[in-house]
Amino acid sequence: MAGFWDYAMSISFLLVAFFCACFLPITAELQRLEHPVKADGSLSFLVIGDWGRRGHYNQSDVAYQMGRIGEKLSIDFVVSTGDNFYEDGLTSIDDPAFEKSFAKIYTAKSLQKQWYNILGNHDYRGDVEAQLNPILRRVDSRWLCLRSFVLNSEIVEFFFIDTTPFVDKYFLRPKHHTYDWRGVLPRKEYLSKLLKDLDSALRDSTANWKIVVGHHTIRSIGHHRDTRELVMQVLPILEEHSVDIYINGHDHCLEHMSSKSSNIQFLTSGGGSKAWKGDIGKLGQDLLKFYYDGQGFLSVELKQTEAKIVFYDIFGKVLHNFNISKGLFSTM
Ligand SMILES: *[C@@H]1O[C@H](CO)[C@@H](O)[C@H](O)[C@H]1NC(C)=O
Ligand SMILES: *[C@@H]1O[C@H](CO)[C@@H](O)[C@H](O)[C@H]1NC(C)=O
């Protein structure tokens, strides 16, 4: 007797389940990775950007000094702010540029750590899916490149964001170059989902330090200046969630700016190879703490309540350094 009702119930249950699966908004969040801190609870890493030129334009000199400083600080990993391979990213997973510009350049022992890479606009001119392909880890196990992700390391949370799709000119004037927008279109949905995911990941974060990494500048007096799209769409989110540091590449220089409207420190590490553009812009609202038009990189040493940031040139000389102290983050 119960047969019909059981049957009807299971059908309606299936229909409800089917409806939910189809029509609920997709709530997949940013991919999350973990990296352990050192035994003493601290963490140190290097940041390099705009580098892959087969050793040319002082890339090998920068790599050598990264090896030395990396050893001294016994770094835990390396962060790349993008434009990993010039001029046009990788052509495929077999592109020899991967070895010639990465594997055979950053050969120092201290650099045989995890590399966390994001994509720059030049990477989007090649086969993006090649750089994202885990197969590259068989060629060099250090390699990890994702579009946007969260990296948790107890005292700090990093939010890596894919900034190239924000920039209108790559879409409005694509005649100069072709871009590989697979996985990005429709653009509006891609960007609104990324902003929403960034906002909720920052809101949920309980780490004492919050560091956001993207390829494009937010504040810069270098060649590209501020990236208007990021100032409008991303900066308010970083300010709302009290992000400590935004690190980018794109401008081929080393730079430190701070802001009058928040505590965010804006760091540019885009000196991995070709530099010396020589066209420095005018300073707007924000405060310029340091600008160097040549090649180099930066290091970050983090403890629970202290951060130490140092910029180096191709001779390993310290060009600029500063410390940040802050109390423990409270969720109340
Ligand atoms: C390499 O670095 C040196 C020292 O900063 C600089 O004088 C030289 O112009 C650089 N070479 C290139 C090709 O940028
Ligand atoms: C930052 O702190 C270190 C000690 O950890 C100190 O040696 C260094 O001079 C400080 N730098 C600045 C610019 O205050």
From TrEMBL:
InterPro entries: Acid_PPase, Calcineurin-like_PHP, Metallo-depent_PP-like, Metallophosphoesterase_PAP. SUPFAM superfamilies: Metallo-dependent phosphatases. Keywords: Glycoprotein, Hydrolase, Iron, Metal-binding, Secreted, Signal, Zinc. Its main location: secreted. Residues 44-253 form the Calcineurin-like phosphoesterase domain. Pfam families: Metallophos (PF00149). Fe cation 1 binds at D50, D83, Y86, H252. Residues 1-28 form the signal peptide. Binds 2 iron ions per subunit. It is found in: Secreted. Fe cation 2 binds at D83, N121, H215, H250. The keyword GTP-binding does not apply. It catalyses: a phosphate monoester + H2O = an alcohol + phosphate. GO terms for molecular function: acid phosphatase activity; metal ion binding. This is Purple acid phosphatase.
